[in-house]
């Protein structure tokens, strides 16, 4: 019998070749929760007949996260890790992880158990039915403030209004992707990454499953409002040039209004004669036009800045150490 799998992954039960699934976990300062995460995941995957790889990406943690991962690897050869040279943020950490996936499919999960491992078997089932991208949609989010839920809700609606590809609402990065999808994602080497959008861009057959998002098991969220606003602007500007068009429309509209007003003023001056008062309207029009111009320049700047960042074509990340089965 001939296998096209590397002998390392070859485990057969009753002559069947087991497929390998990589669980990809970006981690940044997760020492409090990473062991609990590992135990919970192992409980689930020990019950199913697949080969597993648990691939941690240590995103420049400043605590004991890496040491804990190394200790896990010593006890469990299914654990592998990529140690990045510094903190790059979750988006880049996921990209680094995808580059090192050895499995036939990958499941991307947060380390804080907000993405329940109990969903893993369901995802695999759907994958076996032939879906390329099985994503988990939140039907509720516990332990998150009203403001965070509300702003996230508005953002997803806005983004889907603005961009041409449909971006799944209320969906995180928690999903299973097959080889086809992984290889597609790996081709995006842009440094300004909005991975949730990339999942939509690649297309393929998608399947949605619903879940209740729990609170963080331990530790603190790494996000603050500034980071979230940054990600939101990233999401919009990397996916659509609609803001530029809106600026053009507003410019056109105010220009038209100004032109009509100009004709009115000129005619009135010709007919009624020169009239001095008008200081208030003059100043408010100046301020209004001025601020619109500044907003326009700001929007333009966002795109120019992005062009600047992408044209440098810098490497996405550097690796301090990789331990795993990828050649
Ligand atoms: N994360 C990361 N790099 C960062 C920030 C976060 O790899 O710079 C990881 C983090 O360890 C976690 C996941 O991304 O596994 C989600 O982070 P977090 O739980 O803080 O975000 P939230 O769930 O609050 O959106
Ligand atoms: Mg979280």
TrEMBL record:
Membrane topology designation: Multi-pass membrane protein
Domain of life: Bacteria
Alphabetical UniProt keywords: Cell membrane, Glycosyltransferase, Hydrolase, Membrane, Transferase, Transmembrane, Transmembrane helix
GO cellular component: plasma membrane
Domain Glycosyltransferase 2-like: 22-184
Subcellular location: Cell membrane
Pfam families, per the entry: Glycos_transf_2
Gene Ontology terms for molecular function: glycosyltransferase activity; hydrolase activity
Protein name listed in UniProt: Glycosyl hydrolase
